[in-house]
Amino acid sequence: MTNYQAKTYQDIYQDNLHPYTDEEYMTQTVRAMYRSYSNNYLCAIKNTNSIYLAASKSFVKTVGMTQENIIGKTELDFSSQVKNYYKEFYAQDRLVETQRQKLKFLDIHQYSNGIAAYITRKLPIINPATNNVLGTYLVFSALKPNITNKAIKDIHK
User: Fold this and answer.
1) CA-to-CA distance for 125 and 135, rounded, in angstroms?
2) Which of 48, 54, 64, 140 fits a disulfide with 30 by CB distance 3.0 to 4.6 angstroms?
């Protein structure tokens, strides 16, 4: 490793010691999602009002909409079947934020490709500098037939 690389990584470490404002922290979280998961994973980020701030390409395709019609909106504003589940998803988001921990949900709903079953992991986004809950990070996994029974038992424990 060259001195330049070591200095660059030390600078990144030092930069992360800076206490981010809530807005800066959420911006960094959204950027990280797009860099890490935007193509291969079904994931999204919502604020504390369940308004979408980010959505992966796979998520956009699954709900049958465009990126422009998701960002800045809630499921209630969607033109797809997903809007019918707004109350359920809203309640899940508030539960995750209130409990301040990752929770799993079994979601079986009508999506753009028909009825699909997903295990949805929702994590609260908490700024460590302020300890404020800023929103919810969602990651969806398709329920595979060979793990259905185990997954249902795990979720309902």
Assistant:
1) 5
2) 54
Return the pLDDT at 131.
96
Q: What amino acid occupies position 151?
A: A
Report the C-alpha gap between 124 and 135 in whole angstroms: 6
In sequence order, which residues have a C-beta less than 8 Å from that of residue 17 and are 6 or more positions away?
A: none
Confidence of residue 152 (pLDDT cuts 50, 70, 90): low
Residue 15: half-sphere exposure toward Cβ, Cα within 13 Å: 9
Token digits for 102? 């990752």
Tokens describing residue 12: 């990144």
Token pair for residue 131? 């300890």
Question: CB 66: neighbour CB atoms within 10 A?
Answer: 12
For residue 118, give the nearest of 73, 88, 87 by alpha carbon: 88
Residues 92 and 127: their CA atoms lie apart, in Å, by 20
Write the DSSP string, 65-102.
Answer: --GGGTTT--GGG-SSGGGGGHHHHHHHHHHHHHHTS-
Burial class (CB in 10 A: 0-12, 13-18, 19+), 72: exposed
pLDDT tens readout for residues 114-134 = 777 889 999 999 999 999 999
